[in-house]
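Reopening closed ticket. The problem is back. First fold of the pair:
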Amino acid sequence: MNLFAYGDKDGTGIDAKLQHPLGVALVTDSGSILVADSYNHKLKLVDISKKQCTTVWGSDREVTLNEPGGLSVDSKQGLAYIADTNNHSIRILGIQDKVMSQLPVIFPRDTVDSLTIKLSDILKPGKEPEKNETISVAPGSEVKVNLLLSLPVGGHVNDEAPSKWTAVIQESSCDGAGNPIFSQTGTIQENSPQHLFSWKMPDLSSSGRLFLYLKAKVFYCDESKACKMKEKVFMQELNFESSGASKEVQFKFPV
């Protein structure tokens, strides 16, 4: 038996293969263990009594993990909290319904980390963002943010340059000052529509609305092999409304 064997395979006993597993958490009293299979970018479940390992969350999902590390399970709520290391976020997985969301990390106004992305990092002086039509969202519901990237015929994203998106959510519009209550950045892929992130609305906002800003910067090459860059900033106003529901925000980005 090779003690150093690794891989990515569901199975029983030594037939199952993991790669650099890190976090481990007991899911139920019956003896199921959730494992952060870090280098395979997956979550796996091990049934101790049957010695069986199966994939719970893999790369075929809309939201993908990137080297998940630490794990914590709230058995009463049926939730698993995942340190999604290279996505710089904390994910929440419903153990029964297999719904994945992101835990919003909200800082008090006067203690926002100095490393948090600010709105000034997104907006250019004198240039207004492209505004989507205002939508109503219920407090505590989930907002899914997607990017619809349209490349020219025969064009492709330049893999040798970093195409990135940056998002900031705050209570004030670009006309006023304010600290962000959420910020995140990530890589733009060629697939479209591309799910960027999901965010849970807070239960209350003093202004009754929030503003979501997204900057997308794409490096691409056309069919003549000429490589270019295009950048665009979007804004989506989110109004709190008790009769609202979970929503998807679509940002259209033709280059």
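Second fold of the pair, where the issue appears:
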Amino acid sequence: DVATKARSTASGLSRVEEFLAASNCSLNFFLAWTTAANKFVLRYRRTIESTLKFHPNGCLVVYSPTLELNHFQVFWDMGYNIIVERPDVPYLIAGTPAEKWYEGIEEWRKGQYFFSHITEIIRLATLFKYGGVYLDTDVIVMQDLHDLHNVVGTELAGARGESKVLNGAVLLFDRGSRFIYEAMVEFNTTYRIDSWGWNGPELVTRVAGRFPRGAELRILPTMAFYPIHWAKVAKYFRDEDPEDQHIVWSQMAKETYLFHYWNKITKKLVPQPGSLMYKVLNNYCLMCNDTSTDG
């Protein structure tokens, strides 16, 4: 059950709160994995590796009802701070606008997009409660993220570079963020059980459209997180048009904080040696000698 309660402890703190308090984290990172444990293959592990490569003193919390609690023991043994936690959704959303949405949880479970929607709530509530970085598992970190605060990335820009579509696959927000609070209000008041995008990728675009730019919200250009649009990404899994691949790679190496590679579209693609995706997966890793057919 994705809402399983998993609170700790004699201190009264949750297991996550104890972990964060004890680890002296330079930056908090949160991910969610709600599908089967055996689907967590090498390319998703590279998300963990690339994050730790640039943030060795950061703390990673992977919310998952399916992964074993010791799934990332190898990283812990290497000295990194990482835990798997069972998502306790009622605890995370207590005192937030998402509490009202959760009252209908038995009805929402019937929807075909429930796991995507519950992951959205986990992402928003976690950032509001703890602050830090939320990452989808189909990203590779390419730079240190410490200097980014209260930012969301542009997925699609207009002809003059203006942001048209934002995306919540990567969110970096301070604890108690007013923008994240407004996103939870929007999620609760406009929820649609029948739509994947409305409550997910489209949510941050709507909220940002009426939220003032400034210290509480910065919008980064496409090159920051989404340098290759989903409609074009398959090409960069193949070893073709080397000149273009080199140009894009060179620009990303300078301007991209992390690369979201659109797993919904690319999960069945195998990165070919010489392709941009092959370079990305194998240049920002810790256990780079590990290989598999997906990476």
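Update: turned out to be a display glitch only; the data is intact. The CA atoms of residues 6 and 265 lie 33 Å apart. The first strand starts at residue 28 and ends at 32. Please close again.
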